Amino acid sequence: METSGRAESSGPVETSGRAESSGRVESPGRVETSGRTDGGGRGEVVGRGDGADRAEAQAAASEEDPLALRLEQLILGAERRYTPFQAARSAGVSVELATRFWRAMGFADIGQAKALTEADVLALRRLSGLVEAGLLSEAMAVQVARSTGQTTARLAEWQIDSFLEGLTEPPEPGMTRTEVTYPLVELLLPELEEFLVYVWRRQLAAATGRVVQAADDEEMVDRRLAVGFADLVGFTRLTRRMEEEELGELVEAFETTAADLVAAHGGRLIKTLGDEVLYAADDAGLAAEIALRLIETMAGDETMPELRVGIAFGTVTTRMGDVFGTTVNLASRLTSIAPKDAVLVDGAFAEELTRTGDAPVSEAAAADEAAAAEKEGEEPPSYRFALQPMWQRAVRGLGVVEPWQLRRRSS
Q1: What pLDDT, in 10s, does the model give residues 250-277?
Q2: How far apart are CA 204 and CA 26, in angstroms?
Q3: Radius of gyration, CA atoms only, the chain
Q4: What pTM value is reported for the model?
Q5: Helices (DSSP H) in 265-361: which residue ranges?
Q6: Do the Cβ atoms of 402 and 379 come closer than 8 Å?
């Protein structure tokens, strides 16, 4: 969890995203040096090669807010002790590999400033140890660092922008936000850390379960899934009419509602894009139920714009928690041409619904089945969904497709 000083956990102190040439140490955690990569393409972080860096860093460090430094130490659990070179040497890895790991985690180059802690050394040892033991390839270890860094960076930003900002309003005149933040972080840090590990273990267990149930090794990476996009209609116009705070509340309400519905019905929220959410489900019936629930829920909320949903079914490539491939592109295109408060699906999705018995091949076929069942004194088949074929149309980049409109079937 970050503080307003932007101290990073288990990693080098983050900068504003690039290595600066000023050689100064800015606000808590934001170490900026003249670090650069050498011309040999090795990616090694180096300094200017003289004593200027050290002198400037020491002078600037004395100007840092002592309370901000205490916050950084509280969150990281250790004092600044190592330069990148010293940390790599202490961990027993090359500076080149250490730099690859740090950049993968999302941290900018910091030259040779003394900004790293024992936790950084331990993290390097663990990652390199997995490689040495043959449990991970070097490329896979870098990917682990990158996926973890990207996920936790977003979480930390959210906690600072929304969570801590609201909780650290000074209770009394004359108190600064930083003075309130320290005791709050001290209380929350261990609880949030344990909760984070708990949620991660739960998610890991669920993901592992899906993998071991895959039919074969290829299906573990390239799987057949239902992929759906849900998009708020007219969002661009709303951004011009609404105040920023009001717009932020609308987006948060939409994302929260969508996330809850997707999770409750057995889907997986892949990502949110402000006015759009992407979700996936192993079963076409689950994906259809989620889509219709989203439409029905949003339609019942007068504060929300209309919604449209597009779903496609087929082979999907999964990487770092995201999904890629023609199926995903088709779902996105179907969303863009869907009517307001409607769900469009592709032919493969429609076929899957009929194969599993969630929808009839056609209403005429359903009527024939009902008549035959009545004649035999049996219960007619029960279908949850109805599919109506729409006009064929050309979809950019995907050729001609025949979408189907998905509806809930009345009994």
Answers
A1: 888 898 899 999 989 989 999 888 889 9
A2: 38
A3: 27
A4: 0.61
A5: 284-299, 326-337, 347-355
A6: no
